[in-house]
């Protein structure tokens, strides 16, 4: 049994790379949003034309990025959503809600200081983790039933 895992959420740390590296040898394929911040922000205006108003600039980018995000979440068996320290990740919360609405197995990765703010998101998830290694251990357990240690 292989798993398709979509890695959503903050793009400012190497958590995705840690999970992908830790999952080597497991029957897992990963997908993710575009993590180049500038490309993600500017894709709409670069492809569809410039906008003077920042709202429409961002709106075009969000719509183009949503094509990839919807496809990635829809195709995934498991969706991992990381909430980081630096920014308010409203898009990550939206992705978690979208995945939950589609009935996807949802794993949340967050620091303790977000526990209260994310209580509803956590309640919709099947697991809430603190480290990328915990995510890897969940994937390993799901795939082969082995526990760490």
Automatic annotation (TrEMBL):
InterPro entries: YtoQ_family_protein. It comes from the Bacteria. Pfam families: Nuc_deoxyri_tr3 (PF11071). This is YtoQ family protein. It comes from Roseovarius albus.
């Amino acid at each position: 049994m292989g798993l398709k895992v979509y890695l959503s959420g903050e793009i400012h740390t190497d958590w995705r790379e840690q999970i992908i590296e830790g999952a080597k040898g497991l029957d897992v394929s990963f997908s993710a949003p575009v993590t180049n911040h500038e490309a993600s922000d500017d894709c709409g205006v670069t492809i569809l034309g410039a906008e003077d108003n920042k709202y429409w600039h961002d709106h075009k980018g969000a719509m183009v990025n949503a094509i990839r995000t919807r496809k990635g979440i829809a195709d995934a068996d498991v969706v991992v959503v990381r909430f980081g320290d630096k920014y308010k990740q409203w898009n990550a919360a939206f992705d978690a809600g979208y995945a939950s609405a589609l009935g996807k197995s949802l794993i949340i990765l967050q620091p303790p200081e977000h526990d209260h703010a994310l209580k509803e998101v956590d309640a919709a998830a099947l697991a809430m983790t603190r480290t990328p290694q915990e995510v890897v251990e969940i994937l390993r357990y799901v795939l082969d039933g082995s526990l760490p240690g």
